[in-house]
Amino acid sequence: MSIRFLKNEKRFVINTKNTTYAFEIVFDRYLCHTYYGKRTSKLPAAKMTMLSFAPYIPELDEHKSPDVFAQECSFYGSGDFRPNALRLCTDGTGVTDFVYSSHRTFKGRLELDGLPAARADENTQTLEVTLKDSVSGCKLKLYYTVFADVDVISRYMVIENKGKKSVRIDKCMPMMLDIERSDLDMISLYGSHCHEVNFQRVPLHHGKQSVYSNRGASSHQYNPFVALCDHGATEQKGEVYGFNFVYSGSFLDEVDVDQIGRTRVLMGLGSECFSYTLEAGESFCSPEAVMTYSAAGIGKMSRNFHNFVRTYIMPPVSLEPHPVVLNTWEACYFDIDEEKLINFAKEAKKTGFDMLVMDDGWFGARDHDRAGLGDWFENRKKFPDGLASFVKKIKAEGVKFGIWVEPEMVNPDSDLYRAHPEWALRVAGREPLRSRHQLVLDMSNSEVVEYLIALFDKTFDGVDIDYFKWDMNRHMSNVGSSVLPEDKQGEVFFRYMKGVYRLFDWFVKRFPNAVIETCSGGGGRYDLGMMQYGIQIWTSDNTNPYDRTMIQSAAMIAYPAATMSCHVSDPHGDMRSLDYRYKVAVGGMLGYELNILKMSDEIKNKIAEQIKEYKTFDHIARLGDHYNLASPTKYGYSAYYYTTPTADEILLTVIEKADCKAGTTKLLKISAAQNDASYTDVRTGKQYSGQALRKGISVELLGERDSAHLYYFKKN
Ligand code: DGJ
Q1: What is residue 50's predicted lDDT score, i.e. its pLDDT?
Q2: How far, in Å, from the CA of 327 to the mean position of ligand 1?
Q3: Which amino acid residue places its CA nearest to atom 5 of ligand 1?
Q4: Which atom of ligand 1 lies nearest, measured to the CA of 359?
Q5: Residues near 293 by Cβ (< 8 Å), separated by ≥ 6?
Q6: Which residue in 207, 219, 273, 553 has its CB near the most CB atoms, within 10 A?
């Protein structure tokens, strides 16, 4: 059993393969957190102390205060002055006082009311702890679901309005972890469009530090993932706590160091973009947040999350080979038509591609980005015989077919907007701001979602589509819905995401043979919510291999290679650049976006060789364990390897950055190699003993433009 309740101690103990998590019921009311760390049976008891100015309940013990002890969930106004997990307004004050009421443990897990969540398997167990606020009559259920094999525990909460009047949730943070120390670094990922997921590591300081999105999408600007680690933690050693949120909309991650140097981590729906009214009898289910712990450095924390995401989050089909696609965007932008793309398909087939992905530009009046979004029917000038006939012709050339959509958006210059301006997010009396000439559809309005379902159902009926690329190219401003009353406008961000997930669910069911690549102007929704639907995410609109090296390296701290869609773009006739781009792209799921009709035979032949080689080793990155040897943010190069679980096959990559210095030889230790095995580097035929790989392989950095080194070690 992963979850136990020790009656005498009133203690809950959750064990995963390598970790233990524990908390206790104190005074029959508080849930006091007592331990999260390396697996142990020697658990400390709840530490209850007092500080001056800390409030207490007189009849319980005036020497103990909720402001001082570690809690499982804290409530605004109830004596804990640190940032709280829940602010529920039942009487205008926001003050509640939830106390322990009951608990149960069960196999599997419950559905999360229209939200993505990690899948249960036969070993999954869940703990449900119910708390009650006697004055309002509201119930709060805390859920802990255990993925023991990958050392991950997830948390979410359900609020039930059992009272007689409406209540309003102002803040709802399903992840809360109190850690009895603050000598930690915080790792987070920040960025911007085309420069996603930069690695940041800074020591914690007193007060609040946070990452967040107010943009309606998890965003390029801050990823929901955060980690806390020992100041001295490295890839291989030190304590590391990792956290992530299974959600794609606005979020808040707060880390607070309090007056005596303890740390509180909160993750969830923060107040700026969130409030939610529950009428009497209604309930609210939060998205889930996940945590992992590693006693063996940052690398182990990453591998825990990689395993978790592959096994419990991504669609099972993502474990199979991903198609090597030729995407039309950078090659053609909006300038596409049937004849051109059939020629693309012919060349794609000859070069060894699996699939042609027709990007933006195929529908409505979409000759540029100022028109057409919302009009999801084929442009007959470009496809005179219709979509179904066009796709048949593409398939006749021997490649699969993918198509681009951006369902959540509308251009003011579109038939849809002209018919339904009220379907765009807007605030009465205020002119909505534009971004990329577009507005955001009100996905919180079920009429809009049902309209899109009916439209896509008709447009794609009988069209043999293998792959959707689902894009989202602006953030939300002027967020208001024409169908919600004034006091419910704060719900739009959350209801929007539920509308989006409803549409994703529909796509998945309606087109069971197709897979989805998600995208938001590149990596603007690189999150666990999207990963539930897509086999991969378009990592960035930036295909410059130098920048991509930085982006991919940082993304790997939280997400497995299987999620990273990585394209080789036009090398402009330069064979060395083509090789470099390829070696960068095989760190994730390989694809290309270049005008195949304009490539020389030499380039096409090389691409054909690359695709052929990639297919011999793509399983190692897709399914294997990742070991980071050198981060490009710190050094002039990036070095990492993937290995199959038994280390029969190992793929080592070294990418030199532009500022990499010549004349240095690096010793790269492949510690996962089998000690008594011998290996062949398939690319050169050179032999290595496992011991030698473990001791380290010398790689000379050339310090030249576009210099990268790839080794494919296979056990003899
Ligand atoms: C942004 C995406 O990230 C690109 O790859 C491309 O699909 C464009 N949108 C199309 O408008």
Answers
A1: 85
A2: 10
A3: 541
A4: 7
A5: 18, 19, 36, 37, 38, 151, 239, 240, 241, 242, 301
A6: 219
Tokens at 618, concatenated: 């793509």
CA of 200 to the centre of ligand 1 (A): 27
Q: Catalogue the E-assigned strands of 481-635.
A: 515-518, 536-538, 564-569, 589-593, 625-630
Residue with CA closest to ligand 1 atom 1: 521
Distance CA 458, CA 510 (A): 11
Q: Could you say which of 442, 466, 471, 625 is catalytic? A: 471
Q: How far is the CA of 521 from the centre of ligand 1 (A)?
A: 6
- The answer to whether 360 touches 366, Cβ cutoff 8 Å, is yes
Q: Among the atoms of ligand 1, which is closest to the Cα of residue 538? A: 3
Select from 333, 520, 538 the residue to mutate for testing ligand 1; criterion: most ligand atoms less than 8 Å from CB: 538
Residue 649 has phi, psi (to 5 degrees) of -135, 135
* Beta-sheet pairing, 649-656 with 708-715: antiparallel
Whole-number Å distance between alpha carbons of 265 and 491: 24
537, β-bridge pairs: 518, 564
Of all residues in the chain, what percent carry a pLDDT higher than 70?
100
3-state helix, strand, coil in the chain (%, to 5): 20, 35, 45
CA distance 200 to 619: 30
Place of tokens 């849809």: 416
Which residues sit with their C-beta closer than 6 Å to ligand 1?
329, 359-360, 404, 471, 473, 519, 521-522, 538, 541
**Six token digits for residue 509:** 């069911």
541 labelled catalytic: yes
Q: How confident is the model over 614-633, as pLDDT tens digits?
A: 999 999 999 999 999 999 98
Ranges in the chain, pLDDT < 70? none
Pairing of strands 589-593, 325-327: parallel
User: Are the CB atoms for 299 and 327 separated by under 8 Å?
Assistant: no
Q: What is the rounded radius of gyration, in angstroms, for the C-alpha atoms of the chain? A: 26
Look at ligand 1, atom 2, and give the residue with the nearest C-alpha: 521
CA of 553 from ligand 1 middle (Å) equals 22
Token pair belonging to 294: 């590693």
DSSP secondary structure code for residue 441 in this structure = B
Bridge partner residues of 219 (DSSP): none
Instruction: Please indicate, yes or no, whether the overall pTM of this predicted structure exceeds 0.90.
Output: yes
Residue for token digits 């530090």?
Answer: 209
Residue 149 annotated among the catalytic residues of the structure: no
> b/e map of 360-369 (b: 16 or more CB within 10 Å)?
bbbbbbbbeb
